[in-house]
Amino acid sequence: MFKRASLGLLAVVCTTGHVKADEYKFTLGAFYASSDSTMLVKSAKDTGNYYLLDFEDDLLLTEDQFLPFFEFQYSFKERHHIYVDWKSLHRNADTPQLGFDIEIPEFGDNDQSYIIDGSAKLSTTLNIDILRIGYGYDIWEGNDYTVGGSIGLHTMFVETIFEGDISLCGETSEPNSLCDTVSFTPKVVDNALTAPLPNIGLFGMYEFYPGWQFSAHAQYFAIKYDNFKGSLVDIRAGVSAMICENFHLSLAYNYYDVDVDIERSRSILDKEFRTLDYNINYSFTGPMFAVSYSF
After folding, report:
1. Is 217 within 8 Å of 234 (Cβ atoms)?
2. Is 76 helix (H, G, I), strand (E, B) or coil?
3. pLDDT-derived band at 195, boundaries 50, 70, 90
């Protein structure tokens, strides 16, 4: 009796009618991420020299993970689409000994400089969230295919936390000298909101068998202004199968790369000196699996 009732409920859910001109689509899934994140820091022993601190190699943050993503799409007037999606990569790790002291110039809430003791334990957190908002329009349509174009914005939210033997530094008039230690702080938090990266793209869909579709999209943009530059590449191709009229399962292969570089400089004695080069590279190449519900 229970089995028959369950099948009846599933039939009602899966046969709610044909797709209307206005359609809402929710997608939940997981993707495989391989990440690379770096920051330009000063050497605390050989002052004046900069080098890249690697979050994965030096600070032991996980490089490869499976992570969740969420997408929402609203389609209206047959050819128009508005979409929002969100991806998240939150990581933390403990480093027993960094092995060398570093200075991070103009970091934290007040743009102060900090020296991290490389002989002590260091805990690092790097949280990255990417929000994408866009609009798409179906340019060509046929009985079993659609090709369109899109414009949108990607915004990256970054939170960096260091916990360990950290010294807060005062200002110095010498650009290549260590700052004077003022006080000790066990925790440093920097919240960075990158400027939105606009993008343009193409998308397409082909139904090669009833209920089975091949779809793909490609988005790209690069921008540079003032002390900020960034670029993004987003390419996805995959196959989706209709379980019933409202539900789809999809498997895709995705290449996604966002690179953001924030530079700062300071004028000392009528000369410009670079004080910060904060580079975040977020990328993944691999499979994605998702379940979609539309109504």
Report:
1. yes
2. strand
3. low
- The residues, ordered by sequence, that sit 6+ positions from 270 with a Cβ below 8 Å of its Cβ are none
Q: What percent of the chain has pLDDT over 70?
A: 78
Q: Closest by alpha carbon to 90, among 53, 130, 58, 122?
A: 130
Residue 185 CB burial class (10 angstroms; 0-12, 13-18, ≥19): middle
What whole-number percentage of the chain has pLDDT above 90? 36
Distance CA 101, CA 52 (A): 13
Angle at 235 between CA 233 and CA 241, to 5 degrees: 155
User: How many other CB atoms are there within 10 angstroms of residue 280's CB atom?
Assistant: 23
> Is the pTM for the entire model greater than 0.85?
no
Asked if residues 166 and 186 have their Cβ atoms less than 8 Å apart, the reply is: yes
Give 227-257 pLDDT, tens digit per residue.
Answer: 777 788 989 999 999 998 899 999 999 888 8
Compute the distance between CA of residue 284 and CA of residue 87 in angstroms, rounded to an integer: 11
Q: Which of 249, 252, 246, 217 is nearest to 25 (CA)?
A: 246
Judge contact between 113 and 121, C-beta under 8 A. Answer: no
Beta bridge partners of 288: 31, 252
Residue in this structure with the two tokens 């900069």, named with its chain if needed = 50
